[in-house]
Amino acid sequence: MSIHYEIVSDNDIACIKDLCNELMSYQKSKALIHPEWFDNMSFETRLIPSVESAKANFIIAAKDENEIIGYAYSNISLKNTYSGGFATLKPVDFFDFDSVKGNDVGCLSQFYIKEGYRNAGIGSVLFEKSMEWLNSFKSINDLFIFVSNGNDNALNFYQGKGFQVSHQLLDGFITVLRNA
Ligand SMILES: CC(C)(COP(=O)(O)OP(=O)(O)OC[C@H]1O[C@@H](n2cnc3c(N)ncnc32)[C@H](O)[C@@H]1OP(=O)(O)O)[C@@H](O)C(=O)NCCC(=O)NCCS
Q1: 121 lines ligand 1 (CB under 6 A)
Q2: pLDDT tens sequence across 111-153
Q3: Domain span holding position 155
C-alpha cells in the first residue's frame, strides 16, 4: 500500500462519484431511523448541489497508486444554507443561527475511506488536512459535522478529534457535532 494525498479541484469531482455513492449506501446500512431517506441521496443530489452552493470547497483524496480509496469534502457556506427541508418536507434549522457569530460556517461534509483501508491512519490524515483548510479562514469560528444515526464509529472518531456533540435533528436521524 502506497498512499498519497491529492486535492481534487471543483471541476474534477466526478472522480469521487462512486465513493460518494458508497458513502450514502454505507450510511443507509448503519441507519436505524429512516434509512429510506438515503434512497434519494447520491453524488448528484448531495455532492454536486453542495459544491455549487458553497462559497468555497476543499476535497482531499487519498490514493493508493492511481486509485482513489478515500476522500474528505469540506466547505464554507452561508449559515442560512443550513435551513429548510432535508430529505423530508419537514423544515428544520440544522443549528441555532444565533449561536454563530458571523454569516458563514465551515463544515466537514463528507468523509469516506474504502473498506480495507480503514483503521490505518488514512482518515486521520484527511481529517487533519481538512481542519487545516477550514481553520485557514480566520473569520470563521464555527465548524460543524453532521453524522447520521447508527454511525457510532464515525461519532467516536470525531469526538476523539475534539468535536463535541451539540444536539440531534429530525428525531435522531442526525447528530450535530461542533468544534469545541
Ligand atoms: C470514519 C472514517 C472516515 C475514519 O477513517 P479511518 O481511516 O478508518 O481513520 P483512522 O485510521 O485515521 O482512525 C481510526 C482509528 O484507528 C486509529 N489509528 C490511527 N492511526 C492508525 C494507524 N496508523 N494504525 C492503526 N490504527 C490507527 C485511530 O486512533 C482511530 O481510533 P479511534 O477512532 O479510536 O480514535 C472511516 O472509518 C470510514 O470511512 N468509515 C465509513 C464511512 C463513514 O462512516 N464516514 C463518516 C461519515 S460522517
Answers
A1: yes
A2: 999 999 999 999 999 999 999 999 999 999 999 999 999 999 9
A3: 3-179
CB 114 within 8 A of CB 69: yes
Name the one residue in this structure whose C-alpha cell is 478515500: 70
**Adjacent-strand bridge partners of 101:** none
CATH number of the domain encompassing residue 119: 3.40.630.30
CB atoms inside a 10 Å sphere around CB 23: 24
Contact 111, 154 (CB under 8 A): yes
Residue type, 104: D
Task: Look up the pTM and report it.
Answer: 0.95
| Alpha-carbon Rg for the chain in angstroms | 15
Domain count, the chain: 1
Please report, for the chain, how many H helices and E strands are present, in that order. 4, 9
Give 54-69 pLDDT, tens digit per residue.
999 999 999 999 999 9
CA of 31 to the centre of ligand 1 (A): 19
